[in-house]
Design goal:
The longest helix has 26 residues, at 29-54. Helix 6 (107-119) packs across helix 12 (254-264). By secondary structure, the chain is mainly α. It is built from 14 helices and no strands.
């Protein structure tokens, strides 16, 4: 219970403040759109760039960490995809969008603050190793699957071009790529630029959490409850359980196991809805899944913290 109060609850209180402010009309929906544009297109890419530019790549990129987490993530996508198709009879396009909800956990807006409050800033290097691959991996899987099912006889070259354009117009991926480039080149970041980055980084998470609360006001749960609860079970139970089991089997060090399981245990991120909205499929399931699973994470994240060493 102490972990719930000291680690998880403050994060969700900031989200709750954002939700309440927009719901009561104290903060406009247009203001939330601007805030989320700032965080997702500028502040969070700066956070990812700075973290990866300074990261000790040789120490942080443990293959056991990435295999444990991304096996769980891919399993979540397949469970969502085939569950939507075979259990709920959705179209293949809907099934891919629902599978993306099981694939894309909220690694930044929820995973980072909860991990930081639970284990300290020094424990985040493994989280950044996961995040470095997260957007490229998840968007690569989701966009490729969706373009394949929508191809309707188009050539492989056309599909590959669409996937490439969608991937490299994503600012999160651009921030990650730039951070890798600086890290591998060994170029120093000038002092004033470094200080400016730190200012942006400090604004990123609190602003994004507040904005996330405001965005969730739009996601009113309605209809498709069986599919929505299925997505919640895949995201909050199946993904972290597979990650935990594989991490233990591979003797993943405690720090890596914590980072992998905590990140896997997060609700689907807003990107799940963005993906569904981008393609116009399963938008109601994605939106409601983000809202309900985010609320459930208050309890499920606490339970996973009790399981972890």
């Amino acid at each position: 219970m102490q972990a719930l109060l000291e680690v998880i609850l403050p994060v969700f209180l900031v989200i709750g403040f954002g939700y309440l402010a927009v719901w009561r009309g104290w903060f406009s929906a247009a203001g939330v759109d601007g805030l989320m544009t700032f965080t997702q297109k500028f502040a969070i890419p700066c956070l990812l760039f700075a973290a990866l530019a300074r990261l000790d790549l040789a120490q942080s990129f443990d293959w056991r960490l990435l295999l444990s987490f991304y096996t769980g993530a891919l399993s979540g996508f397949l469970l969502g995809l085939f569950g939507a198709r075979l259990i709920f009879g959705r179209s293949w396009e809907d099934a891919v969008a629902i599978g993306f909800c099981g694939l894309f956990s909220n690694s930044v807006l929820l995973g980072l603050p909860i991990m930081e409050r639970a284990y300290g800033v020094g424990a985040l290097s493994a989280n950044f190793a996961i995040i470095a691959v997260h957007s490229p991996f998840c968007y690569g899987i989701g966009i490729t699957a969706m373009e394949v099912v929508r191809a309707r006889g188009q050539s492989g070259v056309t599909v590959a071009a669409k996937v490439g354009r969608a991937m490299f117009s994503n600012t999160l991926i651009m921030g990650i790529a730039a951070g890798f480039a600086v890290n591998l080149s060994g170029l120093p970041i000038p002092g004033p630029v470094n200080d400016a980055l730190d200012l942006m980084v400090r604004a990123a998470l609190p602003a994004a959490l507040f904005g996330l609360g405001g965005v969730l006001v739009q996601y009113r749960p309605e209809g498709d409850m069986r599919a929505i609860l299925y997505v919640c079970a895949v995201s909050l139970v199946a993904h972290p359980a597979i990650t935990y089991g594989l991490g233990r089997a591979l003797s993943l060090p405690v720090e890596g196991l914590r980072a992998a399981v905590v990140t896997a245990a997060m609700a689907p991120g807003v990107n799940a809805y963005i993906f569904a909205n981008m393609y116009g499929h399963a938008k109601r399931v994605a939106a409601s899944s983000v809202l309900i699973a985010t609320g459930l994470t208050v309890v499920t994240a606490w339970l996973w913290l009790q399981v972890l060493p």
